[in-house]
Design a protein that fits this description.
Layout (H helix, E strand, L loop, with lengths): L1 H69 L4 H7 L2 H8 L2 H5 L3 E6 L4 E4 L14 H7 L4 E5 L7 E9 L5 E10 L3 H11 L2 E6 L2 E5 L2 E2 L2 E2 L7 H9 L4 E7 L2 E11 L5 E10 L1 H12 L1 H56 L3 H32 L8 E4 H18 L3 E6 L6 E4 L1 H18 L5 E12 L2 E10 L21 H7 L5 H11 L4 E6 L3 E12 L3 H15 L2 E4 L4 E5 L3 H11 L5 E5 L2 H11 L9 E5 L7 H11 L5 E5 L4 H10 L3 E4 L4 H11 L5 E4 L15
Parallel strand pairs: 14-16, 21-22, 21-23, 23-24, 24-25
Antiparallel strand pairs: 1-2, 1-5, 3-4, 4-5, 6-7, 6-12, 8-9, 10-11, 11-12, 13-15, 15-19, 16-17, 17-19, 18-19, 20-26
């Protein structure tokens, strides 16, 4: 039966479709030819308008130049002194200012005192030139004119008066149309061939004959009869030097209202006609290929439009998400500044702290998404206590669930390993994303459960499954895969109601995939959603011994802060507020701090600290982006004189290539901003040798998102 359908329906149908395409395409080829002619006419019309605008502007430029320079300081005195040298000095820089090509200055009798064009002779009389006559009568006029030296130009004239109001001479300025430079410029602007005729002879053109400009050739007599005889514009299809053009001839009238020159525009049309003929001959091939390409383009266009809309929506949402905490920070800062109530100040500072943490969380998501787009997201795999990781997550989420009276439980498989080797931070980030969404989309008094179980082990590698279930609003999504794509949302109205950047699931999916797992969800609208994902990790059997040492170390260090009073620290940082924050945080350590506001100053201070038996700095915290000299260059200069001093990079750029650049520049380590105070202390303990004392930790600001104590 299927073979009969193929023989009786599909094959004849396909042949009929091809025949129809051929017929339609042949018809479209003829329409294309007509459409091509229409496009030529439209382009010619546009070029004519542009030419008229160009000529008008040239006239305005020459008029402005003549009037302005006639009033220039010193011009009247130079005319009265008949000083050609002084006039040349005054007019030397006036071409570019007013977009004109030449100036002529005369005395009150019409005798030339200065010409700027070639030849630049003077003392001859041009008293019969219309611009000069009008200017000597106190008028400012503009005409298309010809002269002995400049055949076709637009020229303006203006009178020159001395301080007593006596007319002492004239200034003429003009824009030339009779040069190759002018027609080449017009061709570049209009994308068409250009010629200027003086009389019926080409004196400037972009047309070539045997690789030589067709200068000196004459105008077709029939066209000359129309333009010169009937004083009309001419337009038509003509063959010129073997090529077919759609042409336009514009007459230029001089001050005597005579046609003395013509500007020609020509659009080549032969190539377009050849293309139309080729299209007709190849209609079968192009027709079939065209329909296939159309299908591909249709789907590509639909995909591009959808992506564009999604990105536009994302940018609008991101703008809102960023402005919300920024607005809170600005508003609560104002409250803290103006209120005398200490409780209100504390409340405002707490809100500023919360908004700052939220803003940092958003920025981290954006940076993670950027890393994913650039395929530069990496995992930092180390051994960690799996049970402790889950308890930390519970502590973070418990605070949020208590606010909405949720029933929050974590259920774990007894067979789970005590410790695994993996990226604890990225795993925590993924679970916080999913649990945070569950809290957000679950109404008060709902249920949120996290279930963690062991799926199996192969050697020392285990597979774990995490299920985050809630009794929330559910998800209405016809294409489940879209939910995990960047710039995509299952339901834009839900996002408008509940907020969020829409990046969390895309980031989580990438992290899970990097852990050799997969992520999916099941949902029922109005009843809840379960997000599940798996990861693979290596079991760490000897973690108990390591954990015991770490726990003892943590216990010993708890509530204490190292005393570095015997050490000198140089902070190279150009932003004042950043210097103040670092100083406040390091104040309990009693370390001696000095500051450099740029790389040049940092190099100088390190150099001076090594001179005359002085004690050099023990460590340098070096910002990367600074004025005058950046951190990398400053480090390279310091390394020329001191290869031992520890130099630690401080930068908001924390991609792998940024860290590599810091190490290559000679730095010892790279700390990303916002700074993790624990990491700063670790660096000081590492590089400030000796046996520092310990003192009770001062009150430290608790700033940061869920598992980040940052400044």
């Amino acid at each position: 039966m299927s073979k009969d359908i193929k023989r009786n329906l599909i094959i004849p149908g396909s042949l009929c479709l091809i025949v129809i395409i051929v017929i339609l395409n042949a018809n479209n080829s003829m329409r294309f030819l007509d459409f091509g002619n229409l496009l030529i006419q439209q382009k010619l019309g546009s070029n004519i308008n542009s030419l008229d605008s160009y000529l008008l502007h040239c006239g305005e430029y020459s008029r402005i130049a003549a009037v302005s320079t006639a009033r220039e300081t010193g011009v009247a005195e130079a005319i009265k002194a008949r000083s050609n040298a002084e006039l040349r000095r005054i007019f030397a820089d006036k071409y570019a200012i007013y977009n004109v090509h030449f100036y002529i200055v005369t005395d009150k009798y019409g005798n030339v005192l200065m010409r700027t064009h070639v030849p630049d002779n003077y003392e001859d009389s041009i008293s019969d030139m219309r611009n000069v006559i009008d200017s000597l009568n106190g008028e400012v006029t503009t005409y298309y004119e010809t002269s002995e030296y400049v055949k076709v130009a637009v020229r303006s004239g203006a009178p020159v008066y001395d301080e007593g109001g006596e007319l002492v001479g004239t200034v003429l300025s003009g824009v030339r149309f009779d040069t190759d430079e002018t027609v080449d410029r017009l061709k570049e602007i209009l994308n068409t061939e250009v010629t200027v005729f003086y009389g019926d002879t080409r004196i400037a053109t972009t047309l070539y004959v045997d690789d030589i400009r067709a200068l000196g050739t004459t105008l077709d007599p029939e066209i000359a009869a129309v333009v010169f005889g009937e004083r009309k514009e001419y337009s038509g299809e003509l063959e010129i030097f073997g090529n077919l053009y759609q042409t336009y001839y514009k007459p230029l009238f001089n001050s005597a209202d005579e046609v003395f020159a013509i500007v020609f525009l020509g659009i080549p049309i032969a190539d377009l006609r050849d293309a139309a003929n080729t299209l007709t001959v190849n209609s079968i091939v192009t027709g079939v290929a065209g329909i296939l390409v159309s299908i591909v383009l249709f789907y590509a266009l639909r995909k591009a439009i959808r992506a564009s809309r999604a990105k536009s929506s994302f940018l609008a949402t991101m703008s809102h998400e960023l402005r919300t905490p920024i607005n809170a920070i600005i508003g609560m800062t104002k409250v803290a500044e103006t209120t005398p109530d200490s409780e209100k100040k504390d409340y405002a500072i707490a809100k500023i702290n919360s908004a700052s943490s939220h803003l940092l969380y958003i920025i981290d998501d954006i940076l993670d998404m950027s890393r994913i787009e650039a395929n530069k997201l990496t995992l930092d795999c180390v051994a960690f206590d799996f049970d402790k990781c889950l308890k930390n997550i519970e502590g973070i989420i418990r605070f949020k669930t208590n606010e909405k009276c949720h029933d929050f439980k974590i259920e774990t498989d007894p067979a789970l390993p005590a410790a695994i080797i993996g990226d604890e931070g990225r795993l925590t980030q993924t679970l916080i994303n999913l649990l945070g969404n569950a809290v957000k989309f679950t109404p008060e008094n709902g249920q949120i459960h996290l279930n963690v179980r062991l799926l199996g082990t192969v050697g020392k590698v285990c597979t774990l499954q995490f299920d985050v279930a809630d009794t929330g609003i559910g998800i209405k999504c016809e294409e489940p895969g879209r939910l995990f794509k960047s710039f995509e949302q299952a339901d834009s109205s839900t996002m408008r109601k509940f907020g969020g950047t829409g990046l969390g699931l895309a980031i989580s999916k990438r992290i899970v995939e990097m852990m050799n797992g997969k992520i999916w969800f099941e949902s029922e609208l109005g009843k809840g959603t379960t997000f599940s994902f798996t990861i693979t990790a290596e079991i760490c059997d000897d973690y108990k011994a390591v954990k015991a040492v770490d726990d003892k170390s943590e216990c010993d260090e708890y509530g204490k802060f190292d005393d570095f009073r015997d050490f000198r620290l140089l902070i190279a940082e150009d932003i004042e507020i950043n210097r103040e924050v670092l100083a406040a945080l390091l104040e309990p350590t009693n370390i001696n701090i000095e500051y450099a506001e740029n790389g040049v100053e940092a190099v100088r201070m390190v150099t001076e600290s090594m001179e005359g038996g002085k004690e050099c700095y023990d460590i340098v915290l070096m910002d990367i982006q600074m004025p005058e000299m950046d951190g990398h260059e400053a480090t390279k200069e310091i390394r020329k004189i001191n290869k031992e001093i520890p130099i630690i990079a401080l930068s908001a750029n924390a991609f792998a290539e940024d860290v590599e650049m810091s190490i290559q520049a000679g730095m010892n380590e790279h700390l990303g901003k916002p700074l993790d105070i624990d990491k700063v202390m670790t660096v000081l303990r590492t590089y400030c040798s000796g046996s520092p004392k310990t003192v009770k930790m001062a009150m430290m600001p608790q700033i940061g998102a869920w598992n980040r104590e940052t400044v």
